[in-house]
Automatic annotation (TrEMBL):
<feature type="signal peptide">
    <location>
        <begin position="1"/>
        <end position="19"/>
    </location>
</feature>
<dbReference type="Pfam" id="PF03762">
    <property type="entry name" value="VOMI"/>
</dbReference>
<protein>
    <recommendedName>
        <fullName>Vitelline membrane outer layer protein 1 homolog</fullName>
    </recommendedName>
</protein>
<dbReference type="GO" id="GO:0005615">
    <property type="term" value="C:extracellular space"/>
</dbReference>
<dbReference type="InterPro" id="IPR036706">
    <property type="entry name" value="VOMI_sf"/>
</dbReference>
<keyword id="KW-0732">Signal</keyword>
<dbReference type="InterPro" id="IPR005515">
    <property type="entry name" value="VOMI"/>
</dbReference>
């Protein structure tokens, strides 16, 4: 009898695994950069170094529902760069079984965090934590962390670093959500002080009319 129960339990586990919904994540890159957008979200506390790079957009009818960040941990006396990249994860109509990722230009230091998702809805506004310029002989890190607000109201915060302060929230995407990203990046400084990601702005797209 014990062996029969063992077989039944094993079949239950296997059937549960077979029925588990699979999630596919595909890198979109700049393939959809021509998507029409309604407005741009920005904030005023970004830092001064580097240049604005290329935009990357979610495919048509896809919106950002989650994100992950690339963060370099504390280097304890060596050159710190803190936040190096932001990756948006795009979904269509709340279906999270097939996803796209977009990130614009990212820095070269640190590791990507596990994704965080809105419980429902899409990303609609953001706030960034920035360490101000540290002077001629200081170690600049610029952007340290980011928060997003979801259309369903929860706030998500990345596992970034703690230097600097959060500024004001951006305006909000109305009648839609965040659908694109563009980063301001200081390129690699070859042994000098790197700050990597200095600022970011996001595109808002309107939801399609029913």
């Amino acid at each position: 009898m014990a062996s029969l129960f063992t077989v039944v339990a094993l079949l239950a586990v296997l059937s549960g695994g077979l029925c588990e919904e699979k999630t596919f994540l595909q890198r979109a890159g700049a393939a959809f950069s021509g998507r029409h957008y309604k407005s741009m979200l920005s904030v005023k506390n970004g830092e001064q170094f580097g240049n604005w790079t290329w935009p990357e957009m979610c495919p048509d009818q896809f919106f950002a529902v989650g994100f992950s960040i690339r963060v370099e941990s504390n280097q304890y006396g060596a050159d710190d760069t803190a936040l190096n990249g932001i990756r948006l994860i795009c979904a269509k109509d709340g279906n999270r079984s097939f996803l796209y990722s977009i990130e614009s230009h990212t820095g070269y230091f640190g590791d990507w965090s596990n994704p965080q998702y809105c419980p429902s809805g899409v990303l609609t506004s953001f706030q960034i934590r920035v360490e101000p310029h540290q002077g001629l002989f200081g170690d600049d890190t610029a952007m340290n962390n980011i928060k997003f607000r979801c259309s369903s109201n929860p706030t998500l915060e990345g596992p970034g670093m703690d230097w600097g302060e959060y500024g004001h929230w951006s305006q909000e995407c109305l009648d839609g959500g965040i659908c694109g990203i563009e980063t301001k990046m200081e390129e690699y400084q070859y042994g000098l002080d790197d700050s990597s990601l200095n600022d970011v702005r996001f595109h808002c797209c309107a939801k399609p009319q029913q």
